[in-house]
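Journal club prep — side note

Before the paper discussion, L.F. wants everyone to see what a predicted structure for a comparable chain looks like in C-alpha cell form. Sequence:
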Amino acid sequence: MGFRGSQEIVEEKEPFYKMKTRVVFADEKIKRTFEKLRKSKTEKKMLYDWLNRAFDDLARDATCGIQIPNRLIPKEYVRKYGINNLWKYNLPSAWRLLYSIKKDEIEILGVILEWLSHKEYERKFGYG
C-alpha cells in the first residue's frame, strides 16, 4: 500500500515550558509576606510592584528567568519544597526572585520560593 495519496497529520504541541503558567506560592508564609508588601508605604511597596511584574512574566513564560545549575540548588530548598529545578528572576535594585517549575497533568506551575536582596542571594549560594 504505502503512503501514496495519504498524509500524516502531525500536531505540533508547544513545549510544556512555553505553556501558560499559573504562579503560586510555595507556602502560606511566603504568600502572607507578599501580601504585607502591598500595604507598605516604603521601598517594600516598590518590591511588591516588581514582584507582580515578575509574576506576570512567569505566567507568560515559566523559563523567562535564569536556570540555576542543579549542583548549586541549596539543599534547604530540596528538603523543604522537594524541588528538582531552581530558577532566578532578576528584579530591580539587585533583588532576586527564586522559583521552581512544576508540571502536573493539567498545567504548569511557577512556584515562588523566596525573594531576597543581592547580598542575601550571594550568601545563600556561597558567592560572598
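L.F.'s comment for the group: The chain is about 35% helix and 25% strand. Keep this in mind when we get to the figures.
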